[in-house]
Amino acid sequence: MSINLKNISKHFGSFTALDNINLDIPEGELVALLGPSGCGKTTLLRIIAGLEQADQGQVFLKGEEVTDKSVKNRKIGFVFQHYALFRHMTVFENIAFGLRVKSHSERPSEAIIRRKVHDLLKLVQLDWLSDRFPDQLSGGQRQRIALARALAVEPSVLLLDEPFGALDASVRKDLRLWLRHLHHELNVTSIFVTHDQEEAMEVASQIVVLNQGRIEQKGSPSDIYDNPSNDFVSRFIGQTNVFHLEKDDCAWLQSAGIIIDEPKGIIAHVRPHNIQIEKPAASANSPVYLKDWQHLGGTIRLELDRGASNGSNTIIYAEMPNEKFRELALERGDRVALRIKHAHWFN
Amino acid sequence: MPQSHIMPGFRPTLGFTLFYLALIVLIPLSALILKSLELSFDQYWAILTNQRVQASFRVSFVSALVAAGIAGILGFIIAWTLVRYPFPGKRFFDALIDLPFALPTAVAGIVLAAIYEPKGWIGQIVMDVIGVQIAYKPLGIVFALIFIGLPFVVRTIEPVLQEFDTAMEEAAASLGANRWQTFLKIIFPNILPAALTGFALAFARGVGEYGSVIFIAGNMPYVSEIVPLLIITKLEQYDYAGATAIGLTMLVISFFLLLLVNVLQGWLRRRGGQL
Question: The complex's ipTM?
Fold first, then answer.
């Protein structure tokens, strides 16, 4: 089911949480609402769900306007950040809740409820927990039960508020992939909120970057990483080195012998892996030296000091594969020559 | 081998607890039992089966149960209002709740009697409209006990409501539940243990209440005479053994009723997986 938002705005007192949001999400996508805390992403999700009312604008689900419909009539599944499981009910009853509260004519028989709940428990791979209470589960298990509960009512849209926020790192990694596979399997249009760009890149098929109540960019993960539309998106997605040409950077970049394409703006953002490091022929000429380096797994991150005392940003980060680093055989304090292979230009 | 505890001070705190229990609770209570042992079983039985004594037991326990039940419902509504809705003068009303704790109960009794008596402000209206007399009837006892018991209920439910995770309500709504279903299936089961505690406290206080009741009850033997009053009457006649026999019986009944509430609570908690 498609989701369309038209001119959504929301204010809390004098604070503008959402400023004229227009967004179309096609059927079957898994979309990440990504942004720093306080950017309005959770508010937007709650407005789509009907848990919050927008001051102005309209919400359409599958072409039908639902702006004035309450959450119970929107046919959405919502997974809360802290799960909000019913703690006085067993796992089984939690999942069955959405089926049991249906009106008499629509309510399935006990046998169907039973089968359906167990199917969902199998889907989230927790069938053996059906008699437990939420307090007896681990965080990752609660998360999956909350998801199963939301899926029980066969929602046309699945909304997840920071679904992995309260979990520890290793569980989070597993659940991310699991969610992505589950989405492939069910193909229900889903939106999740996150402040973690890595999580958004890994899970989502589309990313919507929000900042201060506005949409900064919308696109596929590689789109957003390779072609950030502005300064904010570039900084927010992945690590980047920032050079201001109007400051001293221009002269420095030239004096350092760094070859860059024609300047297309006044601010250059350079991803660490777009900096190529070489051992200089005449080592004394290069002002850049290796200050420190860190092992990131498959790659090595180099911390380079460009030795400029007046520039604001004197540390440059570069990344290279482990083998390349071994070949260069660099030591701390060694002078290096660097070449920027690619830069994003902004004004 | 001496066991080492993570929390220090086990011995002094246990000692203090036992000392306190003995001094304030156990020794006075055993004195009560000892005193009543002066009576033979037949004498004891004769006192208890006395018509007037039995009537007063009925009056005391029935009115305390009814009052605690009504206070439970009213207290829930008041706690709900105080926690959930902002309204002008909220802090003032909140402070007002505790007043029955602080007010000398005799003062409360006199004021209630004055207002609810057949010629009082409210008593007159009730008399004219539905023809029911409140003061100097068993109904008056219930009114006084509601007044006394209400703060117990409000103050036990309030913190639980405050901590109640409203995301659970939102989750219920997102799953298609209406407000009534959400209340019945989500909010009420989570508040029930606290409501039972409030009910038990209000009931226990109501059974023993003396000061406020005697002014409004009318104290008619067989009709509106409460057990504590009967005990005082016996004491005034220097019938100490008789007074302690009644007191002890009252204590035992109260103890078992409170135990019942506790068992019920434990059962609810276990059922709710909140051990």
Answer: 0.82
Q: Report chain A residues whose CB lies below 8 A from the CB of B167.
A: 80, 82, 84
Query: Could you write out the DSSP letters of every residue in A216-239?
Result: EEEE-HHHHHHS-SSHHHHHHSS-
| Residues of B whose CB is below 8 A from A80 | 167, 170-171
Whether chain B has a CB inside 8 Å of the CB on A150: the answer is yes
pLDDT at B129 over 90: no
In this predicted model, what pLDDT tens digit does every residue of A123-170 receive, in sequence order? 888 888 999 999 889 988 998 999 999 999 989 899 999 888 878 888
Contact A97 B175 (CB under 8 A): yes
Task: Write down the domain spans for chain B.
Answer: 28-274
CA of B167 vs chain A CAs: smallest distance (Å): 6
- Scanning the structure block, which residue is given the tokens 């309500």? B169
> Cα(A313)–Cα(B17) distance, rounded to whole angstroms?
65
Residue A244 confidence (pLDDT) above 90: no
Any B CB within 8 A of A77 CB: yes
Using CA atoms, how far residue A8 sits from A58, A195, A214, A343, in Å, is 6, 21, 10, 35
Asked if B266 is an interface residue toward chain A (Cβ–Cβ < 8 A), one would say no
The string of pLDDT tens digits covering residues A75-110 is 899 999 899 999 889 999 999 999 999 988 888 999
Q: Residue A335 CB: number of other CB atoms within 10 A?
A: 17
pLDDT for the residue numbered A158? 93
Supply the Cα-derived Rg of chain A in whole angstroms. 25
Higher per-residue confidence, B44 vs B8? B44
Distance from CA of A24 to the nearest CA of B (A): 22
Contacts of B79 (CB under 8 A, 6+ apart): B153, B154, B157, B158, B161
CA B258 distance to own-chain centroid: 10
Is CATH 1.10.3720.10 what the domain over B28-274 is classified as, yes or no? yes
Is A237 a residue whose pLDDT tops 80?
yes
Residue B176 touches partner A, C-beta closer than 8 Å: yes
Q: B2 pLDDT exceeds 70?
A: no
Q: What angle do CA B65, B69, B73 make, to 5 degrees?
A: 170
Q: Measured between beta carbons, which residues in chain B are less than 8 angstroms from residue A87?
A: 168, 190, 272-274
| Chain B residues closer than 8 Å to A51 by CB | 170, 173-174
Which has the closest alpha carbon to A191: A177, A203, A174?
Answer: A203
- Interface check for B269 against chain A (CB to CB < 8 A): the answer is no
Closest chain A residue by Cα to residue B175 = A98
Q: Which chain B positions have a beta carbon within 8 Å of A90's beta carbon?
A: 273
| Percent of chain A whose pLDDT exceeds 70 | 90
- pTM equals 0.80
Q: Please provide the average confidence, as pLDDT, over all residues in chain A.
A: 86
Residue from A191, A184, A108, A195 nearest A152 by CA: A108
The partner residue sitting opposite B167, judged by closest CB among A80, A90, A98, is A80
Residue A331 to residue A291: CA distance in whole angstroms: 9
